[in-house]
Amino acid sequence: MMLKTYPTSFLLPKRLKLVTAANKRFDPDNRAKASTDTSTSPPSHSHARAHSQTTTLSSSSVDAATLRHNHNHDHTRHRQRQHAATPTPIVPEPPTLTTRSGKMSVAFFPLGYKEAAQQWWTSVSSRQAERDVLSLVPFLREADSDNSPLQDLAKADPFGQRVWRSSMVKLSGKNRALNELSIERIGEQVDDTLVMLHGYGAGLGFFYKNFEPLSRVPGWRVFALDMLGMGNSARPTFKIHAKDPQGKIEEAESWFIDALEEWRKVRNIEKFTLMGHSLGGYLAVSYALKYPGRLNKLILASPAGVPENPYAVNANLPEPDVSTLANEFTQDQESIVRRESVGDNKKFMGAKDKKAAAKTDTTTPPKRNMPSWFVWLWDANVSPFSIVRLTGPLGPRFTSGWTSRRFNHLPGDEKDVLHTYAYSLFRQKGSGEYVLPYLLAPGAYARSPVVNRIQEVGRQPIKPATETSPAIRETGIPIVLMYGENDWMDVAGGFAAEEKIKQRITKVLLHGTEEERTKENGSAKVVVVTKAGHHLYLDNPDEFNAFVLKELEETREQGLRQRASA
Length: 566
Hints:
Helices cover 40% and strands 14% of the residues. The protein has 566 residues and is of the alpha/beta class.
């Protein structure tokens, strides 16, 4: 039988309670808590931080060397002023250890105790940490900010004038608001909208290498959202009232996607393209099924919960005991970028018969046994972020166990900024993170697998049937599944989902009415990004952005044709 799930908390020893109290007292977000009652931008503290973007730019009149020099010079002056005011802890390079086999490995928590305590004591607020990440984005200006002539030169935009705004969008109910980043092209009509959703426990700032390239296409407006209860969005108490397993799944999914739908109404967006990473991809599918008629395209970047595991979906069986999840914490991102394979997705991509290969376990990423205590903690809803909070001054050290591997392929300054940003999110009050055991079994296997329902995306009734007319249904939407070649998410599950979608399309073309065949708009494809793992949008942003840009351009062209024929 499945272990009983405890919603949000567990009893703490006295010493841990004291640490928790100390955390609340010294939490910079408690000291300078931003109000979520309005949807206006927070006060401007923008930094001109250096960043040499690796994306390939089209030819322009801007001298790239001049931009880099001016941008770096301005950034250096800012860092000197900031360092003089407050010590800025830098994440050190992970120390290396020699194993008996002669191979090199890194200490799991590379940040020292002293450095961790210093970061805990001097941490900036989560909102400032987010702004520091956004300052890494080239060309884009903050709306209504006062820029110096040097900043104006550094931000000279070869792709048209673009601005970003950060807002808290208030929703109905108590303590419900979504943190939003919007990017607009000044002086252009908005014809299409892209909405980006992050993964479990993450935040919109991790898309910082995608904001500038994905906002180059004329006519597009880009939104990135922190999901309710995560990132810098409001963090209301997470509680599930349903008693049956399916009811718990539906209520847990609705906790997030109802907030997304309410946000859409507040922003008065009729239809949009939705892109979700990991858990954001899983919830994007749930949104498409519950709120039909709102999406032009669905882009799933290494989505969670696609394949089916019989132990995860059957309450009469024990929980899964093996998983690929450990790779999220042990994969070295620099080795992934160098294409030193740690998974078997490349082997799957080389298989001639992918349909047959998808049914075997010989080509999936490596699985590891999960200890019984890990399964118990998962079902007891003890999140990894609760450990960061409970350890107090050691929280940055525990966080470095993930950030040192996840960002070690990036320049040192960016690694430092992202580590600080990640810790500022992980230390916040627990909320949306407690959804995990309701949607996913131990090892990140879905309790309601996407592969069993993705074929119904874009097939839902928009208007119910009446006595005089039949129901009006969707006629399919394009669905793109993207994976890294060294992804610990199984790309075979993506191909199985693609096959399900194509079978549904074939059924319409063979057995549908003439009108249904004419209006059929469904499609499916699987894209594998080279030199990338689970965080493909950050591992190889050039290739990832190029794929997504192509999808956006195709969506825009189709929209223009539809509007012209209407």
